[in-house]
C-alpha cells in the first residue's frame, strides 16, 4: 500500500493584489519558461479539488493546500507506469499534447524554488519525503528525479514494525520543519509499503496587524440553530473590499508583508454553495480588478482549524482512477510487485491571529475619513465563510478553506 500524506500548517497572524512580481531565478534552475506557466493549470486544479471536497462533506469545514497536492501528485507521476502517469498528469489538468512531461517537472522545480526563497519577513518550509519499505529497493532513476525536481529524498524504513516506523517518520518530519510539525502519525495507524509525506509550514505577518486589545469573545453563527463563541479580532481602517454584483457575497483582501494575498469571502445568508460554485480563476482575477479602497469596520475570528482527508474518492471523481486499483503501476519507483494501491491523505492546520510587524492601530483610526463617513460599512465574519490565500509571485493557490465552525 502507498500512503501519500500532505501536511499543511499555516500561521495566518499578510501583500498586494494578485499580480506579476520580479524574479530572481536560481541559476541552477531551468528558467526558459516563466513560473507563471503553471499558474492557470494549478489554480484550476485547486478549485476543482476544493469543490469536490466540499461536495463530499457539505456540512464540514474544509482547509487544503492545493499547490502542495499538485506537487505531490506530479512527483508521484515520476514513478508511475506509462498509462497511470498520463492519467495523473491529465488529472492535474495538463495537456500532454502541448506540454512535454519533462517541462512540467522543470516548472514545478522552478515553482518550488520561488516558493522557498528566503525572506526575513516570511517563514515557510515545504517539501516532500518518501519513506519506502526497506524490503523494497527504489530505482535510482526515481530517486534522482525526485531529488532533482522536488528536492525530495527516498528513505528506507522498516514497515514491519509500524510503531517504530511511525516514530521515525514523526522525528524526520519534525527535524525537517524545525519542530513546527510534530506527531504526524499515530502508532495505531495502518502500515504501508511507501509513505509520501508532503509538508508545508507558513508563518507570515499582516501588513496591517490587528490590535490584540480589540479582540473580544463574540457569537459565531454556525447555522440557524447552532452558535459558538469565538475570539473576534477587529480593526477599522482603509481596506480593499467588494460587495460583489455577480456572486452573492462580500469580500475583503488582506496582505502579508511578503508576497501573500488573502481573500476573506463572506457569502450572503444561505448562499455558500452558490459562491463556492462560482469560484474560478476568472472570478479571482475579476475580484482583484474590482476591489475598492474604503474605510471598513472589519471583524475576523481568531481561529485554529485542523483537517485530515483521505483523497481517494475525491481524486477518483476527478478522473485519477487507476491509482487506486489493483492494476496500479508503480514500476518507476520499484520493480517489486508489492507496491500497489495507494492511500492518499491530506492534512492541513490553520492558525489565524493578530500578528504583524507594524504597531496595531486603534479602533478609532483614520479620523479624517471617519469624519467624512460617519458610518463605515461593517463586515463581520461571524457566519460560515471562505478563505483563499495566494502567492503573488507565482500565482499559486497556497491555501483554500471553507470555515463552517471555527471551533
TrEMBL record:
<dbReference type="GO" id="GO:0005496">
    <property type="term" value="F:steroid binding"/>
</dbReference>
<keyword id="KW-0964">Secreted</keyword>
<dbReference type="InterPro" id="IPR042185">
    <property type="entry name" value="Serpin_sf_2"/>
</dbReference>
<feature type="domain" description="Serpin">
    <location>
        <begin position="47"/>
        <end position="406"/>
    </location>
</feature>
<dbReference type="GO" id="GO:0004867">
    <property type="term" value="F:serine-type endopeptidase inhibitor activity"/>
</dbReference>
<dbReference type="InterPro" id="IPR042178">
    <property type="entry name" value="Serpin_sf_1"/>
</dbReference>
<dbReference type="Pfam" id="PF00079">
    <property type="entry name" value="Serpin"/>
</dbReference>
<dbReference type="InterPro" id="IPR023795">
    <property type="entry name" value="Serpin_CS"/>
</dbReference>
<keyword id="KW-0446">Lipid-binding</keyword>
<dbReference type="InterPro" id="IPR036186">
    <property type="entry name" value="Serpin_sf"/>
</dbReference>
<keyword id="KW-0813">Transport</keyword>
<comment type="similarity">
    <text>Belongs to the serpin family.</text>
</comment>
<dbReference type="InterPro" id="IPR000215">
    <property type="entry name" value="Serpin_fam"/>
</dbReference>
<protein>
    <recommendedName>
        <fullName>Corticosteroid-binding globulin</fullName>
    </recommendedName>
</protein>
<keyword id="KW-0732">Signal</keyword>
<feature type="signal peptide">
    <location>
        <begin position="1"/>
        <end position="16"/>
    </location>
</feature>
<keyword id="KW-0754">Steroid-binding</keyword>
<keyword id="KW-0325">Glycoprotein</keyword>
<comment type="function">
    <text>Major transport protein for glucocorticoids and progestins in the blood of almost all vertebrate species.</text>
</comment>
<dbReference type="GO" id="GO:0005615">
    <property type="term" value="C:extracellular space"/>
</dbReference>
<dbReference type="InterPro" id="IPR023796">
    <property type="entry name" value="Serpin_dom"/>
</dbReference>
Amino acid at each position: 500500500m502507498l500512503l501519500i500524506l500532505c501536511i499543511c500548517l499555516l500561521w495566518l497572524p499578510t501583500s498586494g493584489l494578485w499580480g506579476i512580481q520580479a524574479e530572481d531565478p536560481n541559476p541552477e534552475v531551468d528558467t526558459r519558461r516563466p513560473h507563471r506557466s503553471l499558474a492557470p493549470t494549478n489554480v484550476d486544479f485547486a478549485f476543482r479539488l476544493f469543490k469536490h471536497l466540499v461536495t463530499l462533506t457539505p456540512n464540514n469545514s474544509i482547509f487544503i493546500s492545493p499547490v502542495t497536492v499538485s506537487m505531490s501528485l506530479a512527483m508521484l507521476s515520476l514513478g508511475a507506469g506509462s498509462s497511470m502517469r498520463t492519467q495523473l498528469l491529465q488529472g492535474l489538468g495538463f495537456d500532454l499534447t502541448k506540454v512535454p512531461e519533462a517541462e512540467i517537472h522543470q516548472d514545478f522545480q522552478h515553482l518550488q524554488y520561488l516558493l522557498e526563497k528566503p525572506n526575513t519577513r516570511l517563514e515557510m518550509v515545504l517539501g516532500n519525503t518518501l519513506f519506502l519499505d526497506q524490503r523494497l529497493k527504489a530505482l535510482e532513476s526515481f530517486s534522482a528525479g525526485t531529488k532533482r525536481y522536488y528536492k525530495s529524498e527516498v528513505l528506507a524504513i522498516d514497515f514491519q514494525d509500524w510503531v517504530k516506523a511511525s516514530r521515525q517518520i514523526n522525528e524526520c518530519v519534525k527535524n525537517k520543519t524545525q519542530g513546527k510539525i510534530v506527531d504526524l502519525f499515530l502508532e495505531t495507524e495502518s502500515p504501508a509499503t511507501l509513505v509520501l509525506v508532503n509538508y508545508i509550514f507558513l508563518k507570515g505577518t499582516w501588513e496591517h496587524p490587528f490590535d490584540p486589545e480589540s479582540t473580544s469573545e463574540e457569537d459565531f453563527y454556525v447555522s440557524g440553530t447552532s452558535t459558538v463563541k469565538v475570539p473576534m479580532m477587529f480593526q477599522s481602517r482603509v481596506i480593499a473590499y467588494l460587495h460583489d454584483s455577480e456572486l452573492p457575497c462580500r469580500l475583503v483582501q488582506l496582505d502579508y508583508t511578503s508576497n501573500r494575498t488573502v481573500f476573506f469571502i463572506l457569502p450572503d445568508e444561505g448562499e455558500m454553495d452558490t459562491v463556492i460554485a462560482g469560484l474560478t480563476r476568472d472570478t479571482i482575477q475579476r475580484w482583484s480588478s474590482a476591489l475598492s479602497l474604503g474605510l471598513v469596520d472589519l471583524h475576523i475570528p481568531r481561529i485554529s482549524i485542523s483537517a485530515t482527508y483521505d483523497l481517494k474518492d475525491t481524486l477518483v471523481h476527478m478522473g485519477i482512477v487507476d491509482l487506486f486499483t489493483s492494476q496500479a503501476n508503480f514500476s518507476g519507483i520499484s520493480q517489486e510487485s508489492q507496491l500497489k494501491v495507494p492511500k492518499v491523505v491530506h492534512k492541513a492546520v490553520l492558525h489565524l491571529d493578530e500578528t504583524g510587524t507594524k504597531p496595531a492601530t486603534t479602533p478609532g483610526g483614520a479620523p479624517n475619513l471617519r469624519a467624512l463617513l460617519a458610518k463605515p460599512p461593517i463586515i463581520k465574519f461571524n457566519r460560515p465563510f471562505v478563505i483563499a490565500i495566494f502567492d503573488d509571485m507565482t500565482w499559486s493557490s497556497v491555501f483554500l478553506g471553507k470555515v463552517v465552525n471555527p471551533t
